[in-house]
Write a structure and sequence with these properties.
The protein is about 40% helix and about 15% strand. The protein is of the alpha/beta class. The strands form 2 sheets. A 7-stranded mixed sheet has the order 1-7-6-5-4-2-3, sandwiched between helices. It has a 5-stranded mixed sheet with strand order 8-9-12-11-10. The chain binds pyridoxal-5'-phosphate.
Amino acid sequence: MSEDRRSGMSAATLAARTYLDGARKNRPLTSSIIRGTIYTAPSAEEHARLYQEGAKTFYQRFGHPSEEDLAGKVAALESAASALVFASGMAAISSALLAHLPPGSHVIAGEQIFAQTDEVLRWLASGRGVEVTFLDTRDLRAVASALRQNTRLIYLETPSNPTLRVSDIAAVSALARESGVMVFVDSTFATPMSQKPLSLGASLVLHSATKLLGGHMDVMGGVVAGATEVLKPIAEMKRLLGGVLDPQASWLLLRGIKTLAVRTERVFASARALAEMLQRLPLVESLYYPLLCTHPDFEVASRQMSAGGGVISFSLKGGPAQARRLLNSLRLIQIASSLGGVETVIELPYDLDWYGKDHLVVGAVDPGLIRLSVGLEDIHELTADLSQALRMCE
Ligand SMILES: *Cc1c(COP(=O)(O)O)cnc(C)c1O
């Protein structure tokens, strides 16, 4: 597992410890929740000073002490100067995009990315003065030739939703740096336990903390981490748009992250085992899991990821009808959206996000694609459940 270069602590230790600043203190071992939305000031002058300095002890939308431990933790895990936390992954993503894409600017983005990220970019492109080029960001030549005078950033999602395409973060970042362009990486599917985009040259890393970081499907959140000058306008957007994370939610996320290393270790190993099992079955038509040598991006994935993640996407011979039969035959694995929780869930991405979206001709997904998010159940029971349901599809 990766090490934080500054502290010398491993990712597992960074994730487990609430405080990273040494042991000899008298304080609660865990983080505290401060619910108050406003703070008193000892004088009128001090009140004005707290406001002007953007203190975290003024008004909750401007920042609050409960999110500080969480932001520090995320920054440490991503080896970043600092981090910002948001009310959801989308609050983080839309604030980051709005902050860095003024009218007249151009952005290059993956053609197959999280559906609402795609929608935000299309919204910016429709009459709001931002030019967007969607392309396959694995294709370095396509990325290079799409660069323009006004290109501000390249937006990667890797691995991407839902077919787990892997873009080369280091190569795209090197290319971008030559032209003074920033690279944003949605690293939700990998987590810092598998991939460190900033260490590979990216300008900003983004996560939906609702997924593996929180890990229990009981709290939403989003985070971004990077250099202070990249974060500054995003913090301003957060203050204006108001996507602040609730103190209770901050605390829950911090608690979730404490077990990130052990959860991901189990989830990544189980996902790999299930992917290998599925790959051997004649009934399986296509299968995507980044660290299997049959994956189209295996070479890049094995360079930049230490594990393949917790999601497997696959399709069956017989298409959507067989996919529905598989879902309806499962007894242990539950039908639900999202990913990265302790319970294994399965869904059909096309029916949810891609159905009826004609504009996604290039990046469109197979209507029979099945997305499996692996959890912490016993691997033998997961295998047995998938196997009995697959037998119903023969
Ligand atoms: C879920 C998800 C998002 C959006 O996050 P929310 O917390 O649902 O707002 C963004 N990117 C990826 C890759 C996701 O999986």
